[in-house]
Please model this.
Amino acid sequence: MRIPTDAEILALHTKHSPTPAALDMVYGHCLVVRAIAEQILDRADDVDGELVRAGALLHDIGAYRLYDDAGELDHANYIRHGVLGHELLAEEGLAERICRFASHHTGVGISRDEVIRQGLPIPPGDYMAETQEEAIVMYADKFHTKAAPPAFLTAAGYAARVSRFGADKVAAFEALREQFGDPDLASLSGQYGQPLAS
Model:
């Protein structure tokens, strides 16, 4: 499997971004998630670091397909950004293992039962991290938000946010936290000039 270079990944973002502001938001977030994932890599055994790097840089690329002609993001359908990203990456000829980072990073995973029970606007299926690489990108993504302005989230802050989806989601996050530990968000907050929110 060929893993795209950083330059090739930036070219994909640039190609699919509808506006410079969208590129700044989505690609900027992906850069931060890569930095968080790189910290986590130090604690994981037998993991393909280059695959994690590419997955982190590409996981949110589907968000570009949710912008309208006026450059506004369709927040109501944001749950679809993962499957849209998987489709986009597949259309670009990337390997399935890379495409899965887009469709298998949302929250702490979405099960087929949840898709059906909640009537989510995505094809019924299991969107759970299945590999260490997918789990690292999923977990790293939980510590940063693309809100305006973008910010880092503490573990407690993310746990509080995900609790509205049920205790099982908090437990799934805590299991990832136990496995991978807490990233050093204070240093990244200073490096990127973005606040650390709770």
